[in-house]
Amino acid sequence: MPLIPQPPPLAGGALLARLHAINAQFGYLPEDGLRRAADELGVPLSQVYSTASFYAAFSFEPRGRHTIHVCQGTACYIRGGRRILERLKRLLDIEEGGTTDDLCFTLETVYCLGACGLSPSMRVDNDTYGRLKPDLLPNILEKYRGQEAEGRKQEARGRRQEA
Q1: Where are the alpha helices (DSSP H) in the chain?
Q2: Every domain of the chain and the residues it spans
Q3: Is the pLDDT confidence value at 98 over 70?
């Protein structure tokens, strides 16, 4: 008999499914969402946090709508990957792992994007950019900021048409 009674295991990945749902809704795992999940699933909050912190896919802090992964693997590093990272940090005014104040971008480093022949490289969401030079970065960032501005315009047009 265990010293401390334990709840029975959850059926078929219910906790992970709930964490993914919360993450999809908010873009991160807010504390109140985790507390609600623990209550609804009948598991200790510590188990929810333990599971969430194990997976790199989850974040406890708000993340940008676009994630930039800058390769710092050997080929990219040798061909200027550090300069790319430093320029992005200045352009976005954030450090590695940080998110811009407007929640547009989150900046992360990785050690291989599988694009060594295109080094130095980075990925923004699912788009890979190679043979980068620091002076190309402002135009790349503007592409994503422009997409967001266009999305806001379309939403506003939709609201006007509904009214």
Answers
A1: 14-26, 31-41, 45-54, 74-76, 82-92, 137-162
A2: 1-62, 70-162
A3: yes
